Amino acid sequence: MTENSDAAGGTSGGGQRRELTARLAVPEMDCPSCAQKVDKSLQRVDGITDATLQPTTGTANVTYDPDRTSEADVVKAIEGAGYEVVGGSDAEGDDEDNQATDGVDIAPPSEVWTSPRAKKTWLGAAFVTLGLLFEFLLTGQNITVASVLEYPLHIADVLFLGAVAASGIPVVRSGYYSAKNRSLDIDLLMGTAIIAATGIGYFVEAATLAVLFSIAELLEDYAMDRARDSLRELMELSPDEATVLRDGEEVTVPAEKVDVGETVVVRPGDKIPLDGTVIDGESAVDQSPITGESVPVDKTAGDEVYAGAINEEGYLEVEVTSTAGDSTLSRIIEMVQGAQAKKTESEQFVDRFSGYYTPLVVVLAILTAAIPPLVIADPVSVDLAGYGFTFASDWQTWFIRGLTLLVIACPCAFVISTPVSVVSGITSAAKNGVLIKGGNYLEAMGGVDAVAVDKTGTLTKGELAVTDVVPVGDTTEDDLLRRAAGLERRSEHPIAAAILARAEEAGVDDLPDPTGFESLTGKGIRGEIDGKTYYAGKPALFEELGFDLARARRETDGGVVAEESSESDDGAFAENALSALEREGKTVVIVGTESELLGAIAIADEVRPASKRAVERLHELGVERVVMLTGDNEGTARAIAEQVGVDEYRAELLPDEKVDAVEELQAEYGEVAMVGDGINDAPALATAEVGIAMGAAGTDTALETADIALMGDDIGKLPYLYDLSHTANGVIRQNIWASLGVKLLLALGVPLGLVSVALAVVVGDMGMSLGVTGNAMRLSRIEPDRFSDT
Q1: Transmembrane residues, as ranges (predicted)?
Q2: Where are any strands of DSSP class E within 85-202?
């Protein structure tokens, strides 16, 4: 749709300047040079403040001042660059509140093979076929039918001219617009070649060039349309309508007309129209379009559901929590579209290189056509590597060779080699529950040398539960839980939730309400209960308070109790009691005052079954180092690290120390990817070359802060992400060097007479464009490994 945003500046009425954004479909704008031509045309329109052109989606988002220009002028400028605008909207009018009208997010599917351009191409192909028949087989019937400036025209010539008129005029027309916008692109080069060949009577070459290039353009349009299909499939996941309960009745309305707080009805087999919370009913919901989860997830009252997910079997009533434009699926689509605008390093290299390549080859083409006939008086025979070649001296031969180089000068396949790979990779990832927010991150992820992984909620499920309650002295379990839960009721930490749940399960009520509550970052909490200050936190916190826990935390060696030490904790805990809990991977929370220990509570977080296999798979794919970073204690970290199989772990890290750890890994290994929850690990995520957030579906912060978001809580998607990115880097390199290599070989063969105009078009232009597109489409076939947590 077409959107509007008010912007400061200008003056009209209240001192604010209205700006409208026209979102238009331009299907034929399918390459960077096309977009450059449109951009130059738009720059000449007074009142246009911004233009975002996306060849991969075939769309143009143009922001303009309605007091100085109109959408009609925008459309006219785009058409002035030689491209048809399909659909669009009329955002004009006197109504100041008319700030949004319908528009487009991606060009509609094209009827490539039945379009007007296709029909002209087929007609031209028929003329060329008949012309060649008369020229080489039916020579006796190839009679003269007319003459122009005393130049005789045979039947074959007339047919070839018919082919030029049918297939070549659209090319020449596009070349005219390129010249008008001072854009040295394929249309200008081909248009010039067709006119030049026709003008000096090389009708066979002109007709062949016009028809073959038109076929190449149709094939490229088809290939680009196929590339856009993956994004169209993503967009089609969003339901158009919703069944809403209003005044006790079910009403079917467009999804964008449903407000937050309304209740929608979702029957078995229906798509969930909007993000929301289940308020009635139970069902299994297929969330694979959003999170990529391979099995449906059971949903009951209080559970979140996402727009685009499919209700498998039960009846659900869902309270809407976000509008259609703000749903998780809408944000995914928006970010995927925006991701294509962020150029990778490869794309930037291609842009720079093509800026020199095309002018250089055009100059060589002109020199090839002009210089040899002047310096070669008679044909020259040369022996090269055992092969004999003859360098002709006539103008006709060298003109054709210059024409061929002009065709080779087009960098089309080279320029699209990276964008089509990025589009294929990003859209494929999105359909598998992985949101990559830019081609630069896709490229960077494939080149990481080490992966740093947070423990809680990433390698583990993040669902903590109390496993042991260890009171000391005269303290009972209930007293210990009452004090601990009383302190933790003010905390939002997952450990607090686990302790409160255990207290409720044990029937401990009348929890005290602490005053002066304070969170001690990375250590624990404290608060006053009945006028006395209590602490709950890591053993290190109580050691800072003056308690000596060496005896309770002493490690054993091979199962043999270590020798007694003079150090003591006053007998509060049994010998090795705390170290035994920590060796089992449990987090120990001690509760007490500055002078008395009440006891300890052990809490465990279950390791995800997929974690071990995910780490193994990363190693198999070539990741040099997988490191676990955690704020948990040494014992817990060691136990989890051994279970999961990471190369090393770093424990008891504060948030800023995780940043230091990432920097150390960068210095030692090179590029690092950091995987965390997107919120608590934000500094470390920002420090790494690639920040990856786990479980980002429905979490605004994670979606906004991470470079890459795993929409579900599946660590198994991490190897898929690396595999996809690594393969994408390989595909991009293959496309770039293959297209350049073929162009170079063809260019070297031209002076030797080994490459014809037809071969240059079929192999150098059409063949390579289809080749790089087809190679890029391979990325859509990469699937995640299915080692889920279930």
Answers
A1: 121-138, 188-216, 356-377, 398-416, 736-763
A2: 100-101, 144-148, 151-154
- Any catalytic annotation for residue 454? yes
The C-alpha atoms of residue 763 and residue 761 are separated, in whole angstroms, by 6
With a CB cutoff of 8 Å and minimum separation 6, the contacts of 718 are 451, 614, 618, 675, 692, 710
217 against 468, higher pLDDT: 468
Query: At 486, which helix (H) or strand (E)?
Result: helix 477-488
pLDDT above 90 for 402 = no
pLDDT by residue (tens digit) across 51-96?
888 887 788 889 999 989 988 999 999 988 888 888 655 443 333 3
Specify whether the CB–CB gap between 183 and 37 falls below 8 A. yes
**Could you tell me if 724 and 715 are in contact, meaning their C-beta atoms sit under 8 angstroms apart?**
no
Q: Are strands 59-64 and 48-54 parallel, antiparallel or unpaired?
A: antiparallel
For the purposes of burial, counting CB atoms within 10 Å of the CB of 377, is it exposed (0-12), middle (13-18) or buried (19 or more)?
exposed
Confidence class of residue 272 from pLDDT cuts 50, 70 and 90?
very high
In angstroms, the Cα distances linking 707 to 429, 438, 453 are 13, 8, 15
CB 219 within 8 A of CB 772: no
Structural contact between residues 366 and 402, judged by C-beta atoms closer than 8 angstroms: yes
- Quickly list DSSP for 94-105: S-TT--EE---S
SS3 30: coil
Q: Which tokens go with 63?
A: 């922001």
Question: Residue 759 is encoded by which pair of tokens?
Answer: 């071969």
- Put residue 228 in one of left, alpha, beta given phi > 0 → left and psi -120 to 50 → alpha: alpha
Q: Provide the whole-model pTM.
A: 0.67
User: What does the block give as tokens for 456?
Assistant: 């809680």
- pLDDT per residue as tens digits for the range 484-515: 999 988 887 878 888 999 999 999 888 898 88
Only one residue has tokens 């007709």, namely 207
Across the chain, mean pLDDT equals: 82
pLDDT for 421 beyond 90: no
User: How many C-beta atoms lie closer than 10 Å to residue 36's C-beta?
Assistant: 20
CB burial of residue 543 (10 Å; 0-12, 13-18, 19+): middle
Encoded amino acid at 419, one letter:
P
C-alpha torsion 698→699→703→708, nearest 10: -90
By the 8 A CB rule, do 36 and 355 touch? no
User: What is the separation of C-alpha 491 from the centre of its chain, rounded to a whole number of angstroms?
Assistant: 37
Instruction: Please give the Cα distance from 12 to 47 (Å, whole number).
Output: 15
CA 285 to chain CA centroid, nearest Å: 25
Q: Given the residues 225, 454, 569, 605, select the one marked as catalytic.
A: 454
CB 470 within 8 A of CB 576: no
Asked if 525 contacts 491 with a C-beta cutoff of 8 angstroms, the reply is: yes
738 touches 768 (CB < 8 A): yes
**Distance (Å, whole) CA 543 – CA 550:** 9
Rounded CA-CA distance 22/48 in Å is 11
> Do 277 and 254 touch, CB atoms closer than 8 A?
no
Whole-angstrom Cα distance, residue 327 to residue 684?
Answer: 28
User: Which of 521, 464, 458 shows the shortest CA–CA distance to 678?
Assistant: 458
pLDDT classification of 101: cutoffs 50, 70, 90: very low
